[in-house]
Write a structure and sequence with these properties.
The protein is an alpha/beta fold. It folds into 3 domains: 93 residues, Alpha-helical ferredoxin (Fumarate Reductase Iron-sulfur Protein, Chain B, domain 2), CATH 1.10.1060; 123 residues, Rossmann fold (3-Layer(aba) Sandwich), CATH 3.40.50; 114 residues, Rossmann fold (3-Layer(aba) Sandwich), CATH 3.40.50. It has 21 helices and 7 strands. A 4-stranded parallel sheet has the order 5-4-6-7. Strands 1-2-3 form a 3-stranded parallel sheet. α20 links the parallel β6 and β7. The protein is globular. The structure holds iron/sulfur cluster (SF4) (2 copies). The site of one iron/sulfur cluster has 14 residues, from α2 and α4.
């Protein structure tokens, strides 16, 4: 049922239990059935004849594909690979949860899992930009909707630095969320081809992606498919860190003691920890690292989990707030529209959630 490679991966688990402590979903909920070890066991059991039913599919979707387990597992496995394949099988066999199917439909109709239109203020700002430019700012699903304030802050930063750029008003989804919802199918590659066509038509020679998930998609998946070969892809944080280093953007020191919620796709997916720290240093912030930071950063949920089971996303944020309290930190800086939206929505009142682009914009 599963590919030989993924079935083999699932069988590699040695039941050492180490990932039980590292999985942010299992840790936040206390559910043994929602950890990587359990999902691996489920895949092994399906391979040996257990029926793949809706209950197993529910566990398969209680994963944010954050790769913390892959980072830590002694066997060197990558659960995200067989989890994605399990999701393809769930959709094909009609046992995927209804909320997941709704998110897939929302992607087709609205271009985002939330089922929301482009933020009006953002639309007006995009209308005032050139239609073609060497640099394309790719805002992504949260940046265009629930995290539009983050996108607007970044655009103002680029304006202040004198950068000429364009944004696609009808920007199509990169396929990163479709890839997480239903695995790496032909539909994801078709979505990628449509986005590449938009990008080429924009005349861009470089893409700056606001969401780390999109940056990973462009670099790893599009790169693997031979797409975007002559177009440079940068994360927004590394691009802004470069502007600061080159003194194209100047910031005033901020009197702030704060911790960072490093986006897991940035530190683990792209291994880009330093640009974020460079920005924090440029702002003169008294930085207190959270427990599990850098490439071990703890995931606080993602848009799919937020739409599928918001109680889990809420619990994951509560765990991160506890991490901050333990080190007497009451400010957490986020660096992606996904994290800002989810943390700002669920963090307790004693913990202030601050968007890094807001800090830069306000102090430049
Ligand atoms: S850390 Fe790896 S080997 Fe250990 S229980 Fe988790 S998945 Fe299995
Ligand atoms: S990818 Fe993240 S959420 Fe999923 S099983 Fe691994 S640690 Fe848990």
């Amino acid at each position: 049922m599963f590919s030989v490679q993924n079935a083999k991966q699932a069988d590699m688990c040695r039941f050492c239990w180490m990932c039980r402590h590292i999985c942010p979903v299992a840790g936040a909920t206390g559910s043994e059935g929602w950890g990587p070890r359990a999902r691996g066991l489920m895949v092994s059991m399906i391979e040996r004849g257990t029926e793949y039913d809706a209950e197993i599919a529910d566990s398969i979707y209680h994963c944010t594909l954050c790769d913390a387990c892959a980072n830590d597992c002694v066997t060197g496995w990558k659960p995200a690979d067989f989890i994605r394949e399990a999701r393809t099988l769930a959709v094909v066999n009609d046992i995927a949860p209804q909320s997941i199917m709704t998110q897939i439909e929302n992607l087709s109709y609205y271009g985002n899992v939330y089922g929301l239109p482009l933020c009006e203020k953002l639309g007006e700002k995009i209308d005032a930009l050139p239609k073609k430019a060497d640099l394309l700012l790719y805002l992504g699903q949260s940046g265009r909707t629930v995290g539009s304030s983050v996108a607007l802050n970044l655009m103002e930063i680029l304006d202040k630095a004198g950068i000429v750029y364009t944004v696609l008003k009808d920007e199509l989804p990169s396929g990163t969320f479709l890839n997480d919802l239903m695995g790496t199918t032909g539909d994801v590659q078709a979505a990628a081809a449509a986005v590449v066509s938009q990008i080429v038509n924009s005349g861009a020679k470089e893409i700056v992606a606001l969401s780390p998930s999109d940056t990973v998609m462009f670099r790893e998946y599009y790169g693997g498919w031979g797409l975007l070969e002559n177009i440079k892809v940068s994360s927004a944080t590394s691009f802004v860190a470069g502007l600061l280093a080159e003194k194209k953007l100047k910031v005033l020191p901020v009197e702030l003691t704060a911790s960072l919620q490093e986006p897991v796709k940035l530190t683990r997916g792209l291994e880009e920890e330093n640009p974020l720290l460079e920005i924090v240093a440029a702002l003169g912030i008294n930085y207190i690292p959270l427990f599990l930071h850098g490439k071990f950063s703890r995931c606080v949920g993602n848009p799919i989990m937020e739409c599928y089971d918001s109680s889990v996303a809420k619990r994951m944020v509560a765990v991160r707030c506890d991490d901050a309290r333990r080190i007497n930190s009451n400010v957490i800086i986020t660096a992606s529209p996904d994290d800002y939206y989810i943390m700002n929505k669920y963090a307790d009142k004693d913990i202030r959630i601050v968007d890094i682009y807001d800090l830069i914009n306000t102090n430049s």
